[in-house]
Amino acid sequence: MRTKRIILISLVAITVLVLTNSIYILDETQQAIVTQFGRPVGDPRTEPGLNFKIPFLNKVQFFDKRYLEWDGNKNQVPTKDKKFIFVDTYARWEITNPLQFFIRLRDERSAQSRLDDILDGETRNAIASHDLLDIVRSSNRDPEITEAFMEEIEKLDDISVGRAIIEKIVLEKANERTSDLGVRILDFKFKRMNYVDEVRDRVYDRMISERNRIADQFRSEGQGEARKIEGDKERDLAEIQSNAFREAEEIKGRADAEATDIYASAYNKNRTAVDLYKFLRTMESFEKSMDENTSIILSSDSEFFKYLKKLN
Predict the structure, then answer these.
(1) Could you identify which of 35, 94, 149, 305 might form a hypothetical disulfide with 298, taking C-beta atoms 3.0 to 4.6 angstroms apart as the criterion?
(2) CB of 188 within 8 A of CB of 83?
């Protein structure tokens, strides 16, 4: 009885073990192939669900069914116009034929290494076949002019290809080379591009020189405008002063004429007034022309002498 129980338990254990090694489950993110002694057996399994295999003889190789990421290495690449730049790229790919993938590449690590060779190589070829402007720009466009002075400096040369088309070229060439690997590259993009240090320094120096030239132009124009304003100011000031002096002299002339008329009308009324006027004018002349240190010589018929003689 005991022996029968042991045999029964052993049979159950063997049955469970056999069933366990005969069944495998695929979820929505997986696809698989079955191998026997390292060789593929049957068609690839791509639908999720319960699947069977020969226990102990068959092994299951699982592969990802989702979109996979490829991140390229940043490489220094020369352009067609001999500009050295660092290029950083990325791509998305998927396993389209797990059987072919297993035969040619075995696993994702080998696939990533193979994609490195293919995509990096096609990237170098594309960069070396096009000028820098075609790589960094996707279309011809007119720059936005916000200031009048920018019309002379913000001029963009036309491109013949463009970045988007170059990315498409790399994608097509790479897919031609991966067609027998059981994979398909879904998308390829330039993630980042930059000058190498030596070239970048020269570009910065050229940008600084250009901006300094523009600043010098502004300063020169400003100085010219300042000199023009200063000249206009001096001209206007001289004109104002000349007009003011002329008007002042005219006013003085009119005032002197009016004063003369007033004096004439006042002193020409009678002989006594005339004599008084002559006397006052003579005394004013004495006051202005002589002081205590002044010596004068007068003739007997001098107007000055006439009044001094009367004083004696």
Answers:
(1) 305
(2) no
Q: What does the block give as tokens for 246? A: 């002329």
104-141 tens-digit pLDDT: 998 999 999 999 999 999 999 999 999 888 888 887 76
- pLDDT tens-place string over residues 207-243: 788 788 878 888 888 888 888 888 888 888 888 888 8
Q: Which is nearest to 83 in space by CA: 217, 200, 227, 254?
A: 200
CB 190 within 8 Å of CB 89: yes
Task: Please report the beta strands in the chain, taking only residues with DSSP state E, as ranges in sequence order.
Answer: 23-26, 30-36, 39-45, 49-52, 58-64, 68-71, 75-78, 84-95, 183-195
CB 101 within 8 A of CB 63: yes
Phi, psi of 248 (to 5 degrees): -65, -45
Nearest partner of 64 among 21, 96, 112, judged by Cα? 96
Query: For residue 24, what are the β-bridge partners?
Result: 51
The distance from CA 290 to its chain's CA centroid, rounded to whole angstroms, is 85
> For residue 132, with 0-12 CB atoms within 10 Å meaning exposed, 13-18 middle and 19 or more buried, which class applies?
buried
Report the largest interatomic distance among the alpha carbons of the chain, rounded to a whole angstrom.
Answer: 188
Instruction: Return the DSSP state at 153.
Output: H
**Sequence-ordered list of residues with C-beta below 8 angstroms from that of 43, at least 6 positions apart, any chain:** 99
144, containing H or E segment: none
Please list the alpha-helical segments (H only) found in 58-131.
98-104, 108-128
